[in-house]
TrEMBL record, chain B:
The chain crosses the membrane at residues 20-43, 64-88, 108-127, 139-164, 170-188, 195-213, 219-237. Pfam families: AzlC (PF03591). Keywords: Membrane, Transmembrane, Transmembrane helix. It comes from Sinorhizobium glycinis. This is AzlC family protein.
Length: 114, 245
């Protein structure tokens, strides 16, 4: 039996996907209910949550999957650097930073023959 | 008076949240889901299962890891472990959001149900917008946004699944890159506490560093060690500044 057969595929997704993620969300609710919104403990939780997300971001940029796995690192890093410069020049408007970064990447990929 | 009035404003806040589907973060997330569709189509996962996965797992990084486990023929236990480890971050994210969302009367069961809609996009969106919503309506506002966003993406995945195989590599590459770039810009933009900037900078360095040292637990270690470091540094800086005459 391969994993795509009938109910087993859904059970697989439910156990390895749903339980594995919602477990942490539920624990987060129980922990969050005890935090006051001006406490030092919440400040620490905020820092940990942000650092976790930042680590995910860095991994997506440095070790991408799919098509980008074949793109050179200097191009992805360059796209981030140009996007960051544009973001601060435009008084921290997210859309400007994002558009610049994607444009740099698109031009680079095109130039490399993607 | 107020029952009818209250009902009406509750619906209005739900719809205000639902309108968030037209915001920049929601649009970018939907584009990322188009990218995810092409990954699942390449992996040979049938569209019904991709729709099911979108609704029941929701967090995109967790789904990417689930799909890679399936592709590599991992056992149920191995796939569960990989997804569990990658999803620990949902706990501090939800824990940081709950004090912003709830009031003294919000029932715990409701928060447990709504926590399912938390993933990076909804979290970034909610942390940014919720402070501008009156506290009594924040839960309704978030429910409107979260439920609409999940439902819209389930429909989107079902519709575009058959179209994405034809995407040129340049488009697929740009779609993939949108997600990290958007997260980066919006977290910086929406930060309301100084500690967020420090944690973001440290996390960006700590992620690859721990991937190099301990690839199995990299995200978790980067979060706990990097986050604690950021919190300690910001706290030290704050107390020095307060101590200065």
């Amino acid at each position: 039996m391969t994993w795509t057969d009938g109910w087993w595929a859904y059970a697989f997704i439910a156990i390895a996907g749903w339980i594995a993620t919602d477990l942490w969300r539920w624990l987060g609710v129980l922990a969050g209910k005890r935090l006051r919104d001006d406490s030092e403990a919440l400040n620490w939780v905020r820092a940990v949550a942000t650092a976790l997300v930042a680590a995910v971001i860095a991994k997506l940029i440095l070790y991408p999957t799919g098509v980008l796995a074949q793109s050179p690192l200097w191009l992805r890093a360059g796209a981030v650097v140009f996007g960051t410069i544009a973001f601060f020049l435009a008084r921290q408007k997210p859309v400007v930073g994002i558009a610049t970064s994607i444009a740099v990447l698109a031009i680079g990929l095109w130039w490399l023959g993607f | 008076m107020d029952d009818v009035e209250d009902e009406r404003s509750r619906l209005a806040w739900f719809l205000t949240g639902a309108r968030g589907i037209f915001s920049l973060p929601a649009v970018i997330l939907m584009l990322s889901f188009v990218g995810f569709c092409s990954l699942t189509a390449q992996a040979g996962i049938p569209p019904e299962q991709v729709v099911f996965m979108t609704g029941i797992v929701w967090a995109l990084p967790a789904k990417v890891i689930l799909v890679s486990s399936i592709m590599s023929g991992a056992s149920l236990a191995a796939a569960f472990l990989a997804v569990t480890l990658s999803s620990v971050r949902l706990m501090p994210m939800v824990a940081a959001l709950v004090p912003e969302l709830r009031n003294s009367r919000t029932p715990t069961w409701l928060l447990l149900v709504l926590s399912h809609f938390v993933a990076i996009t909804a979290w970034v969106f909610a942390m940014e917008r919720v402070p501008k919503v009156p506290r009594d309506h924040r839960v309704t506002f978030f429910a409107g946004f979260g439920i609409t966003l999940v439902a819209a993406n389930m429909v989107l995945v079902g519709v575009v699944y058959h179209l994405v195989a034809e995407f040129p590599p340049l488009v697929a590459g740009c779609l993939f890159f949108l997600t990290p770039i958007y997260f980066l810009a919006s977290i910086w933009h929406s930060a309301r506490h100084p500690v967020i900037y420090v944690a973001l900078a440290i996390g960006l360095v700590a992620g690859p560093l721990f991937y190099w040292i301990a690839p199995e637990f990299d995200i978790l270690l980067a979060g706990v060690v990097g986050g604690t470091l950021a919190w300690g540094a910001e706290r030290l800086w704050r107390s020095r500044r307060e101590a200065r005459p």
